[in-house]
Amino acid sequence: QVQLVESGGGLVQPGGSLRVSCVASGMSFSLVDMGWYRQAPGKQRELVAGITSGGSTQYADSVKGRFTISRDNVKNVVYLQMNNLKPEDTAVYYCNSRGTNWGRPYDYWGQGTQVTVSS
Using one digit for the tens of pLDDT, what is the confidence trace for 60-79? Predict the structure, then answer.
């Protein structure tokens, strides 16, 4: 059974930093792509950053230069380091893994972790 468990959210002041983590289990973690999404109140869920199994990364324009996604294939963890946080980064952050396995699609989500940027 696949599980994605996020942690590390919280309240931070504008300009501050936070690192959220997602521990994966029940999957061949090193072989799958991972992503971080966020959803602010009243808005659609959006992709923040993604990392492939080979370590290639992509970022939403709104977070480029401020956020860094990384992964530890030994610990089965994907991280999102967030620097210079802005109030508009306030959202629930979700960990995601999606793709195909032997031709069968999969799409797994964590429960989310709240990040609030406010003074």
Answer: 999 999 999 999 999 999 99
20 and 113 Cβ atoms separated by less than 8 Å:
yes
Neighbours of 26 (CB within 10 A): 11
> Phi/psi at 70 (nearest 5 deg)?
-150, 170
Predicted local confidence at residue 9, as pLDDT: 96
Max intra-chain CA distance, the chain: 48
- Of 95, 76, 72, the closest CA to residue 9 belongs to 95
| Average pLDDT estimate for 7-21 | 98
Instruction: Inform me whether the pLDDT recorded for 102 exceeds 90.
Output: no
Phi-psi region of 49 (alpha: psi -120 to 50; beta: other; left: phi over 0): beta
**8 A C-beta contact, residue 2 and residue 111:** no
Amino acid at residue number 30: S
Q: What are phi and psi of 86, to 5 degrees?
A: -120, 155
Total residue length of the chain: 119
Strand partners, 102: none
